[in-house]
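Crash report, auto-generated. Payload:
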Amino acid sequence: GENVEQHPSTLSVQEGDSAVIKCTYSDSASNYFPWYKQELGKGPQLIIDIRSNVGEKKDQRIAVTLNKTAKHFSLHITETQPEDSAVYFCAASEGADGLTFGKGTHLIIQP
Amino acid sequence: DSGVTQTPKHLITATGQRVTLRCSPRSGDLSVYWYQQSLDQGLQFLIQYYNGEERAKGNILERFSAQQFPDLHSELNLSSLELGDSALYFCASSVAAGGNTGELFFGEGSRLTVL
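Recovered output after restart:
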């Protein structure tokens, strides 16, 4: 089955700086790569996703890049704000099973 | 509010006991997924149902079982509970069957504590 590795486990950045979270996946058949944000006491919520036929996708301050050859994808958050503090999960799927999630990154935005 | 409802929100029980967690998916969603979240393991996929039928199985223990009813709500049954079963259990729903077909909508979870 799919295995997703996520780094770092904790990331602390100054407000206004950029944050980058990286993930690798093992199954070359995976073709869908979403990112979820989980705030304290809440369930994860989709913030952006990318499919394997696209190399990059952007939505305001967040962007995701995908390198299929290397089997890795990254989340980029620019101009970080206090409300960006949360746990972020990457995930991958090839369709047959549910999403396989990474172990999460706790993003801390320092004022 | 995701539209996915999970009950109970909190549950405390003893080892060896059995509990049932309930999930109502978003209106119109046919797929229900169950995930277990623990501190060191992240979000672990347990099982998926689509329109009443089991569609995919992940790392679900034999002591755990689930079903999806005709009204599309789902229940996760956990039996012979052990201390290590203490975790947050999430239900998620989506319109389509495949894990790669789009957004999963998560409930707020059921926190199980086994003493």
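Post-recovery validation: DSSP finds no helices and eleven strands in chain A.
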